[in-house]
Amino acid sequence: MKLTPLNITLAVILVWIISEWQSNQEMIFSWGWLLLLVVVISLVDLAFRLIFKDMKKVWFLQIAFILIVGMLMIILKLQ
Length: 79
Description:
78% of the residues lie in helices and 0% in strands.
């Protein structure tokens, strides 16, 4: 399995959730939403790999995808 930005993002999210699991604070989202997030990120990563064979192009497109989704989340959160 090759390393891609979406794999790194998924790993960071999972480590963050596991590290917050033991604290007494309320979880950001439920286990169902976490599972859905893992599946969606995995499918998007797979789609990028199947559509684009050049790994350099996959890296650039996945980083752009992460940035666009992040900006959209911030914009929606502010409204």
